[in-house]
Amino acid sequence: MSRSSINRPPTPDVDRNRENQEPALQEIINIKMIESGEKERLKELLRERLIECGWRDEMKSLCRAYTRKKGRNNVTVDDLVHVITPKGRGDFFPHNNPLSPFWRNSARFYVVTFVL
Q1: Cα–Cα nearest to 103, from 52, 51, 43
Q2: CA–CA separation, 29 vs 115, rounded Å?
């Protein structure tokens, strides 16, 4: 069966509908952070902190263990992402993580100082 034989209405263009709307606060914050370089600075700081606290080494170790278990030729990047994502997020974002307040406060400070 040919797809061209199906008579469907055109899919609405999401971007066209968004043109008339004001950007959401989250979008404004994101734009301001990119323009000021703050987003890149925080990303680099996050990379450094993840290395310092051993999180990166732990994720690398999980990948190696999984690859050894399944065999190097039987593992895809998607498999590794699927395996380590729950552990990685669980380790980094729990309420008892000493870095969590730092990131919340950094974001709050930026929004209050530069956006609002």
Answers
A1: 43
A2: 6
Residue 48 lies in a domain: yes
Residue 115, both tokens = 């956006």
Please state the three-class secondary structure of 7-51 as a single string. CCCCCCCHHHHHCCCCCCHHHHHHHHHHHHCHHHHHHHHHHHHHH
Is the residue at 25 inside a domain?
A: no
> Rounded to 5 degrees, what are φ and ψ at 85?
-60, -50
H helices then E strands: how many in the chain? Answer: 6, 0
Q: What is the mean pLDDT of each run of 10 residues along the chain (116 residues)?
A: 53 60 82 88 85 89 95 94 86 59 68 62
Q: Taking the chain, what is the end-to-end CA distance rounded to the nearest angstrom?
A: 56
Q: Count of domains in the chain?
A: 1
Residue 43 structural domain: 34-115
Is residue 83 a part of any domain in this protein? yes
Burial class of residue 33 (count of CB atoms within 10 Å of its CB; 0-12, 13-18, 19+): buried
Residues in the chain: 116
